[in-house]
Amino acid sequence: MNILSPDELAAALRRIGAERYHNLHPFHKRLHSGQCSIDEVRAWALNRYCYQRIIPFKDAAVLARMDDVELRRVWRQRIVDHDGEIGDAPEGGLRRWLALTDGLGLDRAYVMSLEGALPAVRFACDAYVNFVSQKTLLEAIASSLTELFSPQIISERVSGMLQHYDFVDESVLRYFGHRLDQAPRDAEFALDYVTTHARTPETQRAALQALEFKCGMLWCQLDAIEHVYVNGNPFPGAWRPGLGMAARS
């Protein structure tokens, strides 16, 4: 592999998203086009909570490896965005995701317990935390660059779900509106870091492979959800329709 210029490296990273990002997954095409049942949407939201839950874990793991105080000041905003502030400050992303599962009629305590989550989804999330903890800081930051592509999937998701599903509204989907501002900001910073610090064929290859890993981690979660809830291959103990629903008032 020849050394790429910063612009060439950025283009190579973007090509990975064009080929591997999970907006291309068949389940997401079903979700965004109104082909999912409400129980399939519930299964997706419940399992996706596993990923939402570990985002502060992985960002804390990345933060702990940063020697530069300025770098830490920037990165810690990701944790604040997701966990929110103390007291009556604006809610964070994690609570906004729970607003989605609340709106779908799932019991919040059940969702947070992870009891009904698919093993493959949980394993994938654990693998991501281990990745950013064990790989180089450059690779850990490069793996976050799926945020380059998230505005596209968020726009497709919100417009598609509001159009096709009468059981969601803008309030229930408010997590995604906030990410339209946060993800581009975070991606711009991470992309600048990667293209600045990946200066050898080895480090550039590692950065590209890190992004490929992250795309694969997101994709395999949907593989598991589709296998169980669309193709009808239930895992013992996994969530099923009627289980873990909130009590009606």
From TrEMBL:
Q: What is its EC number?
A: 1.3.3.11
Q: Name the keywords, alphabetized.
A: Oxidoreductase, PQQ biosynthesis
Domain Thiaminase-2/PQQC, first and last residues per copy: 12-223
Q: Which GO terms describe its biological process?
A: pyrroloquinoline quinone biosynthetic process
A Pfam family the protein falls into: TENA_THI-4
Q: Which domain of life is it from?
A: Bacteria
Gene3D superfamilies this protein is in? Heme oxygenase-like
Give me the reactions it catalyses.
6-(2-amino-2-carboxyethyl)-7,8-dioxo-1,2,3,4,7,8-hexahydroquinoline-2,4-dicarboxylate + 3 O2 = pyrroloquinoline quinone + 2 H2O2 + 2 H2O + H(+)
| Pathway involvement of the protein, from the record | Cofactor biosynthesis; pyrroloquinoline quinone biosynthesis
Report the GO molecular function annotations.
pyrroloquinoline-quinone synthase activity
Which segments of the protein form a coiled coil according to its record? none
Top EC class, one word:
oxidoreductase
Q: Which family does the UniProt entry place this protein in?
A: Belongs to the PqqC family.
What does the protein in this record do? Ring cyclization and eight-electron oxidation of 3a-(2-amino-2-carboxyethyl)-4,5-dioxo-4,5,6,7,8,9-hexahydroquinoline-7,9-dicarboxylic-acid to PQQ.
- Name listed for the protein in its UniProt record: Pyrroloquinoline-quinone synthase
Species the sequence originates in:
Acuticoccus sediminis
Annotated gene? pqqC
